[in-house]
Amino acid sequence: MHHIDIDLIEMTLDVMKYVIGRVSATEHQIGKPKKAEELKAAVGETVTAKGVGGEYAFDLWKKHLATTNVPVDHPRNLAFVPASPTKAAIMFDLITSASSIHGAYWMEGAGGIFCENEAMRWIVSLTGLPNGAFGVFTSGGTAANLSAIVTAREHWRENPKYKRENGLIITSIGAHSSIKAMAKVADVDIIMVDSEEHLTGEALKETIGTLTEHQRKCLFAVVATGGTTNAGIIDDLESIAQVCEEEKLWFHVDAAYGGGALVADSVRHLFNGIDKADSITIDPHKWMFSPYDCGAVIYKNMALAKNAHSQQGSYLEIFKDEGAHGFNPTDYQIQLTRRVRGLPLWFSLATHGTDRYKEAVERGLELAQIAARLIEAHPDLELVREPSLSCVLYRRKGWQPEDYTHWTYENHEKGFALVTPTKWKNGDVYETCSRFCFINPDTTERDIEMILESMV
Ligand SMILES: Cc1ncc(COP(=O)(O)O)c(C=O)c1O
After folding, report:
1. What one-character-per-residue DSSP string does 75-97 give?
2. Which of 242, 213, 217, 352 is nearest to 288 (CA)?
């Protein structure tokens, strides 16, 4: 397994050929999922005592398995938050794997961590946070949100008055599901302001006013969203920051999806107030064109994150001297052993320059405006609301929820597009509608037209 022989060389060439084909292809298929039993019937036993051989296994992958995935970078994959990693980032992801770098401590991963930090410095500069703010790359937004919540809670519990309390956070129903999920993991209570439109300082203040004395004692943080996943809405970060300051609450901004838009001059003002955050989540694997998986958590005060996350162990002591060695990413988030997952982003930034990132994000924003104008001009379609960032919610007049589901499956079945329905809360009513989320700058106006035409 660890020797170099002719089989290994052939396998390496085959893999490189496949990767070059994938990266240079201009048309990808939208794959269709199959049931696990069908896949098992097609590929048979693959994990056996003697192995089935690399060539055979690779053939199975190409013939039966690769085609059942829906590539997130397909220009007509506009579901969830899609992605569009740059070719440079993908190629350096291979180097990241091939280099076997342990990215926890500088002592072992200096070169990789140095590059990650160069990329991180640029991300932090987009936020406007003061000197001393910095961050680390995580496995995604969920891990970043958890790392931030745990840091905030540990800081709050430094006060002996709160030692035995669970803690409470406030967010809104527009927040991503990971906030609720991570509050559960951290055993923190959560109150959700009941509006999917942008959360304001006023609404936050009103909610704080309804808390019992004990709840107010336990309240330690507010999570605002910098681009809701469903609709791209940015909370009123300036007024929320002010309430957090007055009430002495930790201010976290989840900009996992929207954070990439900090680079775009046309919408940067919508994030005003993010520079007052105590912590911020931004996912480079969303709108910074990195391959999966790559999230980031940023802190105004890194020492607080270190207090919360630094792991102790006799075998770790040698690695821990930041003075002698350098920056240790493990100390600032929940993971010990880690891939230097910011390395592909660094290579892509170094290759293309940050202006190209600005252009690519602006194109996503422009595509949302183009889609909105096409929808408005269409007699059978209507906007549910004006686009926010790159999310567009729209309805097909006369359709019931099952019509949207049927249409999604039909387009997916044909290998044409993946556009999925969502719900939008209007007053007390949840309306099912269709949703676009644009990330890929290669999506064309014609792609959007064809998708809309398929609704009539
Ligand atoms: C606003 C927001 N926060 C958090 C997440 C979770 O991020 P991840 O899937 O990278 O864990 C997402 C994912 O879409 C998101 O949009």
Report:
1. TTB-SSS-----HHHHHHHHHHH
2. 352
C-beta separation of 403 from 409 below 8 A: no
Q: Please check the confidence at residue 174 and state whether its pLDDT lies above 80.
A: yes
Q: How far apart are CA 199 and CA 427, in angstroms?
A: 15
Ligand 1 atom with minimal separation from the 140 CA: 10
Tokens (6 digits) for 334:
């929940």
Provide the pLDDT for residue 19: 95
Cβ–Cβ < 8 Å for 384, 432: no
Cα(360) to ligand 1 centroid in Å equals 20
CB distance 295 to ligand 1 below 6 Å: yes
Residue 127: what pLDDT? 98
Rounded Cα–Cα distance for residues 281 and 144 (Å): 6
Probe residue for ligand 1, chosen from 176, 179, 196, 293 as the CB with the greatest number of ligand atoms within 8 Å: 176
What is the CA(453)–ligand 1 centre distance, in A? 30
Q: How far apart are CA 436 and CA 76, in angstroms?
A: 10
As beta bridge partners, residue 279 has 252, 299
Q: Which is the closest atom of ligand 1 to the Cα of 143?
A: 11
What pLDDT was estimated at residue 196? Answer: 87
pLDDT confidence tier of residue 27, bands split at 50, 70 and 90: confident
Tens-digit pLDDT profile for residues 292-326: 999 999 999 999 999 999 988 888 887 877 776 89
C-alpha distance from residue 109 to each of 228, 330, 391 (Å): 35, 11, 38
Q: Which atom of ligand 1 is nearest to the CA of 255?
A: 1
φ, ψ (nearest 5 deg) of residue 168: -140, 140
Per residue in 388-417, pLDDT tens?
A: 999 999 999 999 999 999 999 999 999 999
Q: Is the distance from the beta carbon of residue 236 to the nearest atom of ligand 1 less than 6 Å?
A: no
**Residue nearest atom 6 in ligand 1 by C-alpha distance:** 141
What pLDDT, in 10s, does the model give residues 33-67? 999 999 999 999 999 999 999 999 999 999 999 99
Ligand 1 midpoint to CA 322 (Å):
31
Under 8 Å CB-to-CB from 135, ≥6 apart: which residues? 120, 123, 124, 280, 296, 297, 298, 299, 332
CA of 176 to the centre of ligand 1 (A): 6
Ligand 1 pocket residue status of 234, Cβ below 6 Å? no
